[in-house]
Design brief:
Length: 264
């Protein structure tokens, strides 16, 4: 891999990766028996060499440490010199790297690379003379985490992981920003319902139409064949006459009451 070294702006610090045993730390892999690569920071002003990725417990590693190399921009000669992720902060007191070794107690995904940070004494919250190592990714995901880049001052470290580190992340592979003093606030949990508030809401009513406003059997069918028929007048029975639209009986004269002339 090209570009696996970083030089401080004034040339007094050099960050590099090596499989050689450059300090008193035994970098022989506990499982393979071969030498694992570790990240080293050389300080010319102090004439010191620090293994920033070596296990603080001095136990032999179970995986190698790496820093991202140069990112190619095309295939032309010199394209790999286009850009190098900031594995070393602008002040030379923060280093970012990946390690398959469990360098923190919370790193439980054995032999799976995770993103780590090393801080010099007096940087951030570190008070340890040899510097402090801390996880950036969770250390619990089966897919681990990979360091991508950092801001110039090292206050923002970007990494990818398939772990869901915030409630809004449903899963899959995502890019995270580990920010000093930052983060996303989790929303308040929903208030549980009580009493009538727990009832299921009724469905949305339908818009009224002519059919939804009517009820019953509706109007009977019209028999158009009877529209042109005329009703025959009602005849009065025998012995009655129609008067003022009603049938009335007629009175027969009694015998001997005839008004015609005759003997009395």
């Amino acid at each position: 891999m090209h570009g696996t070294a970083r030089v401080f702006a004034d040339g007094t610090k050099l960050l590099f990766v090596s499989e050689a045993r450059l300090t008193g730390f035994d970098n022989t892999d506990l499982n393979t028996g071969k030498a694992d690569s570790e990240a080293y920071l050389y300080d010319a002003s102090a004439a010191s060499l620090t293994c920033v990725s070596c296990n603080p417990t001095n136990e032999r590693p179970i995986g190698a440490a790496t820093i991202p190399g140069a990112i190619a921009n095309g295939t032309a000669p010199g394209s790999t010199q286009a850009y190098k992720p900031r594995a070393l902060s602008a002040n030379g007191r923060r280093v970012f790297f990946d390690s398959a070794d469990a360098l923190a107690p919370t790193d439980t995904n054995s032999a799976t690379p995770d993103a780590y940070q090393w801080e010099a004494q007096g940087e951030g919250s570190c008070t340890r003379p040899g510097g402090c190592i801390s996880l950036i990714s969770s250390g619990r995901s089966a897919g681990g985490g990979t360091f991508i880049d950092a801001s110039a001052d090292g206050s923002d470290a970007f990494f990818i992981t398939d772990d869901s580190l915030v409630g809004a992340d449903p899963g899959s592979l995502d890019l995270y920003d580990a920010r000093v003093g930052g983060g996303f606030g989790e929303p308040s949990p929903p208030i549980p319902c009580e009493g009538d508030a727990c009832q299921v809401l009724p469905p949305e009513p339908l818009d009224p139409t002519l059919t939804t406003l009517l009820s019953g059997r509706g109007n009977p069918p019209v028999r158009y064949a009877n529209l042109n028929r005329t009703k025959k007048p009602k005849r009065c029975p025998q012995g009655s006459l129609k008067r003022k639209g009603h049938c009335a009986k007629t009175h027969k004269p009694k015998p001997g009451n005839s008004k015609r002339g005759g003997p009395r």
